[in-house]
Every structure is written in C-alpha cells, then in structure tokens.
Amino acid sequence: MIQAPDLPLWWSLIVGLLVLAGAGMTLVGSVGLLRLHTFFDRVHAPTLGSSLGAVLIVLASIVCFSVLRTRLSIHEVLIVLLITCTTPVAFMLLARSALYRARAERSAKTSETTDAEPSDLPPGSGDSDLAR
Amino acid sequence: MLALALAITGAQVMLGLAMMCAAYRMTAGPRAQDRVLGLDTFFTNSMLLLITFGIQTGRTLYFESALTIALLGFVGTVALSKFLMRGEVIE
C-alpha cells in the first residue's frame, strides 16, 4: 500500500507536509470530540477538521494534480466550497435542536436540579416524547 | 519518493484514528445529538481519507466519491437534527 505519485522533490515535500498537517488537524478535532465533556463543548471540536483539515488536504490535492498534469486543476475547490457552506448550517441546526431538547427536559422535571446532560437517563427512553 | 509515500500513509493512519474516535462517539455517545455529531465527523473524516487515496493513486475517481459523501453527510445531519427537534423529518 506504500505508493506515491511521481513528483519532483520539492513538490513532493510540499504535498507531504500539507497532507500531514491536514490529517493532524483532523485528528486533533476528533480527539477533542472524544475527550470534551458536554455536548456544547463537543460541537466545537470537529469543525477543526472540517475547516482547516479539509482546506489543507484539498490544497495538497490541488498542488499534486497541477504538477502531475502540468496544468491548473482546481476542481477540488468544489469540495471546500461545499464543506464551508454546509458545515455551519448543519451544526447550527444540531445545536439548536440540542438546546431545544435540553430546555424541554429541564422544564419537564423542574422538581429536581438537573444538569444540561443527565447521565442517568438512558438515551432511548423517553426521547420520542421529548422530541415532540 | 519514499518520503511522500510515508507521509501519505501516515496521514491515512491519522485519519483512520480520527474515524475511530468519531465511531466511538457515534456508538457510545450519551445522548442522541452526540451520536449525530459523531456521524457527521465520521462523514467528514471519510471524505478526507478518500481525497488522500486520490492523491496516492493519481486518479480522479476518488474526487467524485468524496464530493458525494460530503453532500450525503450534510443531508443526513440536517435530517437527523430536524428529527431530534420535531420528531419527524418531513412536515
């Protein structure tokens, strides 16, 4: 599986560094998704991978294919445009629905003091009632 | 070209580890919105992994599948968050 395109030395160094930096950014974002504590902390973390990680890896792909074909090939910009337009919309919808669910749960049981994330509640019980 | 091959393979291993983190959050997330967040991160990481496969093999086939996966990830996240908010997808 060790395989690489035939690039000149400096271009291969640039492509390798860009790919490694983008993958490192994505890994940091996903480790943040794994390790942060509440949902509203966790919703920040994967945007590191979907903004800077995607931009760096797509830039590496643009450099690689432009050098391989000796012409400008920028059709990967389409992926960056799609990701930067759709990720904020999707995460904002998700955060608003999470906020709605947290408020519904808090108003449903006002008798006891609840956190924003009750861990004793199993995730399948009563979700369909709270979602409506 | 061994350095570029090792860099691309290392980047694929890192993206695979990121996908494992997202898969853990998708299977063991405490709430439903954590699972949806893990699913969206899984889609993004798999799209980036497909772009690195495209760099490695020099084919443009992987670009089209990466574009399709990005689009499907957005549609899936919007549909699931609408389901979490209202309880139904199409009103």
From TrEMBL, chain A:
Record GO terms (molecular function): sodium:proton antiporter activity
Disordered, as annotated region: 106-132
Keywords on record: Membrane, Transmembrane, Transmembrane helix
Ranges that cross the membrane: 12-36, 48-68, 74-95
PANTHER family hit by this protein: ANTIPORTER SUBUNIT MNHG2-RELATED (PTHR34703:SF1)
Name the UniProt record assigns to this protein: Na(+)/H(+) antiporter subunit G
Originating organism: Sphingomonas jeddahensis
Gene: mrpG
UniProtKB/TrEMBL annotation, chain B:
Membrane among keywords: yes
Pfam families according to UniProt: MrpF_PhaF
Localization: Cell membrane
InterPro entries reported in the protein's UniProt record: MrpF/PhaF-like
Membrane protein topology class: Multi-pass membrane protein
Transmembrane portions of the chain: 6-24, 36-55, 61-85
An MF annotation (GO) of this entry: sodium:proton antiporter activity
Keywords: Antiport, Cell membrane, Ion transport, Membrane, Transmembrane, Transmembrane helix, Transport
UniProt main location, coarse: membrane
Example of a GO cellular component annotation carried by this entry: plasma membrane
Similarity comment: family membership: Belongs to the CPA3 antiporters (TC 2.A.63) subunit F family.
PANTHER family: NA(+)/H(+) ANTIPORTER SUBUNIT F1, NA(+)_H(+) ANTIPORTER SUBUNIT F
Protein name, entry field: Na(+)/H(+) antiporter subunit F
Organism: Sphingomonas jeddahensis
Phylogenetic classification of the source organism: Bacteria, Pseudomonadati, Pseudomonadota, Alphaproteobacteria, Sphingomonadales
